[in-house]
Amino acid sequence: MSLQDIQDKISKAEKEAGRDAGSVELIAVSKVQPDARVQAVLQDGHRVFGENRVQEAAGKWPAFKDAFSGVSVHLIGPLQSNKARQAMELFDAIHTLDRLKLANTIARLAQELGACPDLFVQVNTGAEDQKAGVLPQETDGFIAECRALDLPVKGLMCIPPVDEEASLHFALLAKIAARNDLGGLSMGMSGDFERAVALGATHVRVGSAIFGDRAYEL
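Predicted structure:
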């Protein structure tokens, strides 16, 4: 499958859902991908990418941003509070705001830096012990706390449990977003992004379907 194939599938899903063309942003997940593969996707004209780790992004994206205009890089992996400053300087959006300590740190740094990336609250829709994210029943309160800190919360993000129907989790995330007047929904990956589009996703995160299998180091 290619970048164009994914874009065509998103366009088809938008049309079938009665949504405006171009209303869904494709985040090409470039984590653990060789620079040559990332550069090829940049040369194809794509400009929105996702990374899981601050350190990896720091070694990759400053040079690419210098070489290609209009690049937007999103953090889609967990963020430690001690990496928050570096993340805020590197990323245009952070999809994994999941606890008050991190929110307070980002708020303080935003005052110092005079800017803040767009923020998405990660919701642990499946209440999985091993997964980060705010529990669904605690999300309304957490959003209110973030807004009280003047944080630019744009939406919500989730990663459904692998053994459950993803659509149920996408629908839950959309419901929480709607009652909190949030327009952004970061949901859907390579195997389920079309269902996510049908249920209102504004950002879908697709990696190996675009780049090929990830080149993890042994």
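Summary: The domain at 3-211 is CATH 3.20.20.10 (TIM Barrel).
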